[in-house]
Amino acid sequence: MDISSTGLRVLRQIAESGSFTAAAIRLGYTQSAVSRQAAVLERSAGTALFERRPDGVRLTPAGLTLLRHARTILDCLTAAERDLTGTVPRTELVRLGLFLSAGAAILPLSLTRLAATDPQITVTTTEGTTPSLVRALRAGSIDLAVLTSRPPHRPLDGESPHLHVETVMDTELVVAVPSTGEFAGRTEVHVDELIDAPWIAARASNAEPLLGVWPGLPGRPDIVHCARDWLTKLQLVAGGFGVTTVPSRLSPVLPPGVSLLHVEGAPPEIRRVLVARLPGRPTPAITAVTRAIASTT
Known about the structure:
This protein is an alpha/beta fold. 36% of the residues lie in helices and 26% in strands. The longest helix has 25 residues, at 61-85.
């Protein structure tokens, strides 16, 4: 096979992004350029590497096989570049991905503890939804991911081999409401009282459910504000402009004017926080970062 490093980078980015369009944006290419690279890869491999689906692009088994080798090849090229330029890394790098609310609740304390125990490790971070971070792990764009799942806690994806997953904590989903107004002074709310509530929510992607609306809400939610950023959502709640769902672990970082209510009349919504990585023996740096994250519970 005659495959260029550019082709391998395109393969990795398509695997991470889940579409040719998103891969092109992240790489700074045109979509047609990405499509051409994908076609060249498939011709060189002699088999289909990409499965075009209504919800995006997935790698075929052959594509996943090539992706595993692509990670190794691209890492070797990066190492060769360092050797040729004489650039010696002074720290061990761990690329960490986090789901959208983990940055406020988990990241700062984890990094503080890591700095005290393993100052030679540098952590870079990126936010994303659990599906996008799983793709990034598979693509080799991140080394470790803090993810979330809901019962019945199925495998994070259907790919093989399965990711190595450790449970960090279970946390209850609650509703954030203004501290003044109709819910003032309360600690609980019945799910029926939330039917007509003004919701602050957003859809992470077309394939994912609304983030910010109670999952068991009986009826169509009245969404008055759309926002993905948790700080924006909570400041809108504090201003009395609506309600939203949050994990109870966010309670230490709530802005003034926000209260958390447990929902009655519906099954509890438990969210599990996970740390995931590719299978195999982890590096000491990845082990140290995992330990720092687990110590925040």
